[in-house]
Amino acid sequence: MTEWVKVCAVGEIDEEDVIRFDHQDRTFAVYRSPEDEYFATAGLCTHENIHLADGLVMDNVIECPKHNGRFDYTDGSALGAPVCVNLQTYPVKVEDDTVFIGL
Amino acid sequence: MVQQVVIVGAGESGARAALHLREQHWAGDVVLVGEEPVLPYERPPLSKTFLTDACDPPVVLTEALLEEHRIRFIPGVGGGQLHREAHHLRLSDGEILPYEKLLLTTGAAARKLSCPGGDHAYTLRDLGDAQVLRERLAEAPHVVLIGAGFIGLELAAAVTQGGGHVTVLEANPEILERVVPRAVAQVVADAHRNRGVDLRCGVTVEQISKQSGRYTVGLAGGEEVVADLVVAGVGAVPNTTLAAEAGLQVENGVAVDAFLQSSDPDIFAAGDCCSFPHALYQGQRVRLEMWRNAREQAECAVRNLIGGREEFRQVPWFWSDQYDLSLQVAGLPAYAAHHVSRVRPDGVTLHFGLNAGNQLVFAAGVGVGNSVAKDIRLAEMIIGAQKAVDPDQLADPSFNLKQIIRG
Question: What dihedral angle (degrees, nearest 10) is formed by the CA atoms of B169, B172, B175, B176?
Fold first, then answer.
């Protein structure tokens, strides 16, 4: 069963940006798209364990801050070398101006 | 003519080129020749986590990938001769490889110290060097590093983190001169000094001698520094012997044009071994020693050697990790006419260089973890777009740099 965990208030993520969210011993990246929708993926790049939340979001793409591996954060798909393994994605919901991630 | 592309040099650039040929649906044969006896691997960790965490560098072309993409990899073969008239490469073991097109990705070698006893200094360039260094460092409580460039400083951080004592000797009055703004260099220098590194600038090494397992480094002025190990990081020289012997034009590296094509139209070059006229910098000839450039040039060269006609115009970019800090640089500092700083709410300062027409040509920053990455990436996109920018907007931390790209 999905456990909904509170991430932050909606205003704490800028539009077209990402934040890091740590929960227990896991790390996630939570995104707000230019269309004002929220998404969540695993927090680390599948290439070399770099925190994606330090990377740049442009449209639906997050780019790893170290080696420029790119993923579509809305579905986790890897968009080409040097990354070839997709990102795990997680459901997100917004209730009462609060963002929740489903684990 | 034989449908075969031969790639000489199996570092980041050569390995990327081999894969990119398949990504571009090249149907002919691909042969990748490497001097080292191992599968192609990532070099950046060699001066960082390879030493601090004892983790081996990731392999970039595994046996499975070589097989899947039908790439013939010939390891452990160096030298050889290039016969351009006959369109073949003769390897040092005697095998003859015919080619339709040839790509030189021979990289660069560590520059040796020229002073008397300079041979006593170890250098770091490849996995073999790093393995030797890792063993020697384990039994060397005091290390002298000659040259405060990125390799030297990353080594200083790795040795310090491993509990060793480090003296860094730099000939210039400041570290990283002409590479990053002084304020960035100062943050880096402070990080080393605060952790006990004896960082000394403006000192000239005159000679190195070895007695009963210890080294004595003699400085101009007569002072001597005694150490258990001496490592030199004084730059790299492009590997151009093969090209030069074959009569290709060489000019601080294999000289290629904006399409990465050498003076022989069937031979291209990419990465640390070549110099090229940079389209974003008035066509000035530059040679770059950067991980990402090695990959991007490999891709561009591949597309051109199978029939494309694409100018290489990627923005130079590199990073360096030292302790908990990461420094990132985009563009080239020499082309800046004036500078602007942007002080972020978290205290990190970003440095921008603009030309006389207010086009951004350079950006640099240093911060904990990858905290400068987003801003430097945006700066890189602005540099690539070659748009005139408002310096006040660059300096204003509340102004979102994305607006310049989208504007």
Answer: -130
Helix (H) or strand (E) holding B16: helix B12-23
pTM for this model (two decimals): 0.93
| Pairing of β B205-211 and β B214-219 | antiparallel
Closest by Cβ to A54, choosing from B16, B292, B371: B371
d(CA B374, CA B353): 17
Note the pLDDT of residue B1: 58
| Side chain identity, residue B247 | G
Counting every residue written for chain B, the total comes to: 407
Amino acid A21 reads F
In the DSSP assignment, the letter for residue A57 is E
**Whether B43 contacts B11, CB under 8 Å:** yes
Of B207, B205, B272, the residue nearest B235 (C-alpha): B272
Looking at residue A84, what is its pLDDT? 80
In single-letter form, the type of residue at position B116 comes to P
**Interchain CB contact of A65 with B (< 8 Å):** yes
Mean pLDDT value across residues A13-29: 95
Do the Cβ atoms of B370 and A54 come within 8 Å?
yes
Contact B366, B327 (CB under 8 A): yes
Cβ contact, residue pair A54, B373, below 8 Å: yes
- At position B151, the amino acid (one-letter code) is I
| Residue B31 CB-half CA count within 13 A | 21
Does the distance separating the beta carbons of A81 and B16 come in below 8 Å?
yes
* Concatenated DSSP letters of B51-68: HHT-PPPPBSS-HHHHHH
- What token pair was written down for B269? 């070059």
Longest Cα–Cα distance of chain A, Å, equals 40
Helices then strands (H, E): number in chain A?
0, 11
Query: Which SS3 state, helix, strand or coil, does residue B134 take?
Result: helix
ipTM, 2 decimals?
A: 0.88
User: Is the alpha carbon torsion for B347, B353, B354, B356 positive or negative?
Assistant: positive
What's the pLDDT tens digit per position in B224-250? 999 999 999 999 999 999 999 999 999
CA B345 to chain centre: 32
By CB atoms closer than 10 A (0-12, 13-18, 19+), residue B37 is exposed
**Alpha carbons B197 and B192: distance in angstroms, whole number:** 5
CA distances from B87 to B83, B267, B268 (A): 6, 10, 13
Q: Three-state SS for B206? A: strand
Identity of the residue numbered B278: H
- For residue B261 the two structure tokens come to 């094509």
Quote helix, strand, coil % in chain B, to nearest 5: 30, 30, 40
Q: What integer is the mean pLDDT of A65-93?
A: 90
